[in-house]
Amino acid sequence: MYIISSKIKLKKFLFIILSILLLSFAVFLVIFHNKKILISAENNKKFIKYVEFNINYKILKEAMNEDIKSHNLSQDIKIDWIKILAYLATKYGGKFDKYKKSDLKNYVKKVKNGESPEQELENQKLFNYYLEAYGTILKDFLGEFEYKNKNNETIKTYGLKARCPIAKSYSFSHYDDFGARRTFGYSRPHLGHDMFCSVGTPVVAVEDGYIEIMGWNRFGGWRIGIRTHDKKRYWYYAHLRKDKPFRPGLKEGDNIKAGDIIGYVGRTGYSNKENINNIKRSHLHIGLQLIFDESQKDSPNEIWINLYNIIFAIT
Ligand SMILES: [Zn+2]
Question: Which residues span the domain enclosing 236?
């Protein structure tokens, strides 16, 4: 009698265990399937994943001047410098060492005649890529703005709105150091641009935006990150001054205008401890990250832009 009852108990026990196992497996399958769908949906999102910016500042300036001239002379047909650059990039397959000024002049001439030279390009897909990539970088560099003249009158004009990050009348030196090796923490390429100048030099915002982050980071030291209002550009200013890095009163979330002082050049960074000067030569490290999709913001696929020629063009 005892043996039979324990046999039944064992059967019951095995049945329960088996049921639990089967149920767990079913739940696992459902979760795994959903996750797979989510992951593949993520991978299928279409957005730009790579941009290289290698346009010489002289070409940037020439295209910029055509754009500004056409707006200020009140011509009926406006020239768009971003379209010029996308047109040339497509024509040269991205290799701007093929640049000829006559190509730019011919483009402008055709647009003024009411033609659309970009439509003559063979590779329309490539043109659209460059238009979006360059458009995202340079979108708000030119535009209408107001300023006060000597007589304190407000003047409305069209021109360069972006500001050099080192305040006017302060000198700096720089060279193209994008991609150079950096070894603090781990070996990685330099994803920004260094502008050497003395400690305390005011740093200004290149563009309008809002403060997304400010404080200490072991690489950048005292640093401030400003996101443009369209959320597509993240400007990163690092190694700010020890003790007094930021303009007093600034806090995360504040709106910033192009040209506003945001902080001061220093040598902080490369330290796990806060407020330490571990950078040998005082400089501003400035970086520009493009964000076509929010998933790119803090990921192994971040897109940082070489600012060397851009800084030249806006100084
Ligand atoms: Zn740097």
Answer: 181-314
